[in-house]
Design goal:
This protein has helices spanning about 1-5, 30-40, 55-60, 80-95, 100-105, 110-120, 170, 195-200, 220-225, 240-255, 265-275; strands at about 125, 155-160, 180-185, 210, 235, 260. The protein is of the alpha/beta class. It has a six-stranded mixed sheet, covered by helices on one side. Strand 2, helix 7 (about 170) and strand 3 (about 180-185) form a beta-alpha-beta unit. Helix 5 crosses helix 6. The longest helix has 19 residues, at about 80-95. The chain is extended. The chain starts with a helix and ends in an 8-residue tail after the last helix. This is Mitochondrial ATP synthase regulatory component factor B.
Length: about 280
């Protein structure tokens, strides 16, 4: 105990008080009763105001007026730690995909989104070119085939980003792409209705859109694509009757639109059916 007292800075009062404060305690002063009353009612109580200990001491030592140390107020179970890690990982991805104004000012919207997509494993194609630009050789820099300065002659015409997890914050990099006509966001588990609504007003000249295998999309998100008046082909796979009816309604709204609805197939279920013995089926 003496060693711990030397390591942890003590409060203005005793860090490990001998007495415990209860609501029926008669040895409390008037100020102590007021603080206890505010603590119980959870009103106007500021723990920082009533302690002079450092942040490390506040975590490990019991509060000199009330209760156990703050470290005991957290849930340290494996499930809670896993949830915390998952939440922080999502926050990191959203922050990493944020719209950076300085990058757009120095490179322009088209070249900036080209760097954004190629660095994350996608591919882009500029207008007037036939091949997509990808980062195939990881031993080289990703921008070996991309312009490093602003050039008004470069316009992104197609973006191929399958199997990439783009959040709403990442799609904000797609604005001001007035020459973009082809977009593939297949196999995106976090693409939702808000993302489709943003695509509807941020990319007005889009002609091809692939959003197959995106489980977060509902019929409301399909309805948000009616802003894409130049859309010619929409690829989606779903067995949901509401989504299919929304696609049919979208074909009536946008002239010349063809919606390709693929069946949603469960690979695990198919494998299980193939391995099933015929004699076991009753």
């Amino acid at each position: 105990m003496n060693c711990l007292r030397k390591i942890i800075p003590q409060c203005s009062k005793q860090a490990f008080p001998g007495k415990r404060f209860y609501s029926n305690s008669k040895d409390l002063s008037k100020d102590e009763n007021r603080i206890l009353y505010e603590k119980l009612l959870d009103k106007n109580y500021n723990s920082e105001k009533h302690t002079e200990a450092s942040s490390f001491a506040k975590w490990l030592t019991p509060h000199y007026k009330f209760g156990p140390p703050r470290i005991m107020n957290y849930d340290w179970s494996i499930k809670s730690i896993h949830s915390w890690y998952k939440r922080k990982r999502i926050e990191f991805h959203k922050y990493n995909q944020r719209y950076i104004t300085e990058r757009v000012k120095s490179l322009g919207s088209d070249i900036a989104v080209a760097h954004f997509i190629v660095y994350r494993g996608g591919a882009i194609r500029f207008r007037g070119q036939e091949d997509f630009i990808r980062w195939n050789n990881k031993k080289e820099e990703y921008h070996i085939n991309l312009p490093l300065t602003y050039d008004p002659n470069y316009f992104v015409e197609a973006i191929d980003a399958p199997d990439l997890m783009f959040y709403y914050e990442g799609l904000e990099n797609f604005k001001n792409l007035f020459k973009l006509k082809w977009l593939c966001l297949r196999n995106n588990p976090v693409l939702d209705n808000w993302c489709l609504d943003y695509i509807g007003h941020a990319i007005p000249n889009l002609e091809y859109l692939d959003i197959s295998n995106c489980p977060q999309i509902t019929a409301g998100g399909i309805a948000g694509l009616q802003k894409l008046t130049q859309l010619k082909t929409l690829v989606i796979n779903s067995n949901n009757i509401e989504i299919q009816m929304a696609c049919f309604a979208l074909e009536d709204i946008i002239p010349g639109l063809f919606v390709l609805i693929q069946e949603s197939k469960d690979v695990r279920l198919q494998t299980k059916i193939k391995n099933l013995d015929v004699n076991e089926v009753q």
